[in-house]
Amino acid sequence: MSMQQIVPFDFQGAAVRVVLDDGGEPWFHGKDVCVVLGYVNPRKAIIDHVDAEDVTKRDTLTAGGIQHQNYINESGIYALIFGSIKPEAKAFKRWITHEVLPALRKTGSYSIPSNAAPAPAMPIPILREEIENNKILAELIRSYSQIYTAIGIRGSQKRLAVEQALSQRYGIELGKVVPLPGPAQTGNGRYAFVVEDRLVSPTQLGTALGIGAREVNRLLEEKGLQVRQDKDWAPTAQGKNLCEWVETGKRHHSGAPITMLRWREQATLEILLGQSMESGGTRPCAQ
């Protein structure tokens, strides 16, 4: 299937590339769509949500040269929209169905309405590639940090261990890759970086500790971080700085959003591991 020239559209400042096939049907750049809809791993999202016949490959010029990349058709677009929990998904669907597709089928192109402010010029392909690389690096840092926490390595020793693991296994020198402020550099010239503390569920905490979510909730209660309120858990005054209520994307019959308690991973693990040691248990290892 041959394709026409790629046309970049703009959705709320994000580039979404599209091409038309010989029959005039649009094919959307899969990664662009996944980024708009909040999927962290575009390739997995397409495999999980989009049927094989709704995906095609096309050579695409990127900041790293010509790459063979996924494009999805209109059916694939809807599959990804329905699988997304991001609030922008509804607006994106309306934009596709009410603006982009009608314009493409009439004129073969899409342009911003004359009364709308033009999007600021920026090197979109390069920017998106760097964003994806940063996400991968951040996940590596969190993963190694979690492992070292679980086996009892903490503080500056843990930071240096993570830095060394990234350097030895992946050739990543954080001081060169990440622009860090001056105070983050220690006296010996090494960087003491801060690992972002993501919000996770009791099940995710249990995976790091090698126990189930029920046992995690019991430990959180024993440590004085949460209490039972009817059938639900609620944070105590001591625990409220370690957690947040996060919307699940679902709603009650009343229309109110359903929320769940999520805990700051590293800070909470430190406390739960301390609790395990105080109670005389063995230190759990990463699974």
Explained architecture:
It is a single chain. The protein is an alpha+beta fold and 287 residues long. The chain has three domains: 7-113, no CATH class; 125-184, no CATH class; 199-278, no CATH class. 43% of the residues lie in helices and 21% in strands. The protein is built from ten helices and ten strands. It has helices at residues 30-36, 42-49, 74-83, 88-107, 124-150, 155-170, 174-177, 202-209, 213-222, 265-278; strands spanning 7-11, 14-20, 26-29, 55-62, 65-72, 199-200, 226-229, 232-235, 243-251, 257-264. The strands form three sheets. A five-stranded antiparallel sheet has the order 1-2-3-5-4, sandwiched between helices. β7 and β8 form a beta hairpin. The longest helix is centred in the middle third of the chain and has 27 residues, at 124-150. It is flat. The model is unreliable at 109-124, 182-195 and 275-287 (pLDDT under 50).
